[in-house]
Specification:
Layout lengths: L3 H11 L1 H6 L3 E3 L11 E4 L2 E8 L2 E8 L2 E8 L10 E7 L7 H19 L17 H6 L6 H11 L4 H11 L4 H19 L2 H16 L3 H11 L7 H8 L4 H15 L4 H8 L13 H4 L3
Antiparallel strand pairs: 1-3, 2-3, 3-4, 4-5, 5-6
Length: about 290
């Protein structure tokens, strides 16, 4: 399949249930055939736009990449208001039915999760800022635990409030507290269900963050999160197809160790982490001299 218009037509047809469920309608250029996909093209950039009440999204293909953008706000919606929800490689010359099905499933999930419940638009807040993909890929900064949680709760917005409460309660993000009390249950639920689309989304996140993450972040994924599988062979088998080679071996080794006699103490500490103790503030030089 070498025609990007045909690919976008197929994606358009596939996401129709999600478009209707989330209250969107396609935006057609003047004089366009409204029985086809609402595709516009300019300088090699192909766009499909959709609008609903106080919300909009668009799918855009350019330079062998396909993007999903969205926005929810009252009043006039401008191009600068859109937030990138998804980005992936899609080469028209090599794309096949499997690639199209993946895009349809991915966009369906994202639209329903984002607009079917509520859209969390990035705003200025006291939440710690996540590391961007561009920063991580450039090597300037590595992914930290907060970035993992931030993107994890974008996939599972029902956990977003728990993430915010964690940051507000401690004045910083405590990763073990969040995942042990909230995130791990969702991870195990998804792995146990073993739905192909859900597993791809979850492990796409884990694989990427692990590959370009700090040592602390890698330990969080392998030990705190996937170590909670407790060496369950069925659950680990479910993960095998989706874990990258880089991630798979550490996860297997951690599960084996935590299930062994030698790892009993580590398992107890993992299940019962010490209570959080805020760092003591150092006395200023002024207070030390009694002024």
């Amino acid at each position: 399949m070498a025609d990007i218009r045909e690919i976008l037509e197929s994606i358009y047809k596939g996401i129709q249930p999600a478009v209707k469920e989330c209250g969107f309608s396609p935006v057609y250029p003047d004089g366009a055939d409204k029985s086809a996909a609402p595709i516009t093209e300019s300088s090699g950039r192909y766009v499909m736009e959709f609008k609903g009440e106080n919300k909009a999204f668009r799918i855009e293909h350019f330079n062998n990449r396909i993007f999903l953008y969205g926005v929810a706000k009252e009043g006039e919606i401008k191009s600068a208001d859109f937030v990138k929800l998804d980005e992936s490689l899609l080469e028209a010359e090599t794309a096949n039915d499997k690639d199209i099905r993946y895009a349809v499933n991915n966009y369906t999930d994202t639209l329903v999760e984002t607009f079917g419940t509520k859209f969390v638009k990035p705003v200025k807040s006291k939440l710690p800022a996540p590391v961007s993909k561009a920063q991580a890929k450039s090597g300037a900064v590595s992914y930290d635990p907060n970035t993992l949680a931030n993107r994890f709760t974008a996939i599972y917005p029902e956990l977003r409030e728990a993430y915010k409460e964690n940051c507000e309660k401690y004045g910083q993000f405590l990763a073990e507290d969040f995942f042990l009390n909230h995130g791990n249950a969702k991870v195990i639920e998804v792995i146990r269900r073993n739905n192909d689309t859900e597993m791809k989304r979850l492990f796409k996140l884990f694989n990427e963050i692990y590959s370009d993450g700090t040592n602390e972040t890698q330990s969080l994924i392998c030990v705190t999160i996937l170590g909670s599988l407790e060496n369950d062979m069925e659950l680990l088998a479910n993960c095998a197809e989706y874990m990258s080679t880089e991630l798979a071996q550490p996860v297997i080794n951690v599960n084996k160790y935590l299930a062994s006699k030698a790892g009993k103490g580590a398992r107890m500490k993992l299940d019962n982490p010490p209570p959080y103790k805020p760092k003591k503030q150092k006395k200023s030089a002024v207070s030390k001299i009694g002024m």
